[in-house]
Amino acid sequence: MNVRIIIVLMLLFKSTIYAQNNFDGDFLFKNASLITMKEDKLIKNSSLLIKDGKIKEILVGKLPSLKVKKIIDLGGKFVMPTLSDAHVHLPKEEKEFKKYLILNLINGVTNLRSMRGKWEHLKYRDKYNTKGSIYPKLFLSAPPISRRYEFTKNELVSFMEAARKFDFIKILSIKNEKIFKQLDSLCKKENISIGGHFPSNINDKYIFNSKYKSFEHLGGLVTDGEAFKERLSKIKEKNIFICPTLSWYDIGSGRYNYKELRNMPGMNFIAKETIDNWIVKTKAYRTKIGKKEYEKEVREELDKLNKKYIVIKKLYDVGVKMLLSPDSSSKYMVPGFGMIGEMKLLKKAGLTNYAILEMATKNYAEFLQQNRGTLELNKEAEFLVLNKNPLIDFAALEKIESIFLNNQFLAKKDIEALSKSISFN
Question: Which of 25, 49, 175, 184 supports an S-S bond with 210, CB 3.0-4.6 Å?
């Protein structure tokens, strides 16, 4: 058949498909450079058609006839899924809750996994995760279990009955093997997962046949060679996710001077009195242990970090899925603002930008079995609009142009207004 005829038939077929499809929606974002997070690739000259909060069409090139309520021309800007922080500690007081959520939102973080639950967090989720909410979605742990609780079987049953409305059980530590087995049996019965620290006092065979779905802080992995190999193999086999939280150790290492600590990202959202108090406590500690001991401590902590980088690369090389979080639960760490710092630390482990962004997008959604995390047809439309490409430089995430979530578009002016509403200067 003549090549020209084939081309004409293909164009007619394409036109027929467009004619048959009903290209209507709430939003059309055109002239975008898509980072779908399905692969390490940029798709230029693309458009996203959104309806009822979901991606209805992804169109490349010339657009067909459309019926859309609002069209937004992105002028070639970069579009990627929003970020997720997989290890957060929610505020102690409700009065701080809204600010906490905004701090994350203005940094493009629209999903939060709580790792230090409280019973009252259920009502906060009901309040802030309504249908039309712009606040990050909360995935909640029940109040954490630790070794100081010597549960009877009946007490564990009562605990699980109260914890049913939460998303998972968090283990900080556990008293003994008997309690662990009883807890795991109840989790299996209720089909509720376990996440948290690697319990050093429990035999590995019980841990790896339990409802554990995630380990935090590389627990149980920065260890001797044979134990590491066996645990690595089991983590891969059981599809357990790992959340390294490097930033908590980096900032806690003592490596930063007082000026650097005062200028950590997001410190303009912290009251000066609070920062001054942090500095006073840090100075008091460093003075107390003395210059020589302080320098020794920094070296030891940085050596531990270097070992973590090696472990992370090995995890990645064998295909273990990882989640991203700075664990912003200590001094000098501002919620939301630590995400880029965590990404930069993960680069030291030898991971690519794409692999690191996967941890905060696709992996998180897969871990929680959510219909989001990538830009695909029928997925929830949650994405960031950026002026630069984060696959090249994470600094692109420092200036978010706009955010789309819950079928709502937050323009740059909206993000700036939210920032101003909670800033101290």
Answer: 184
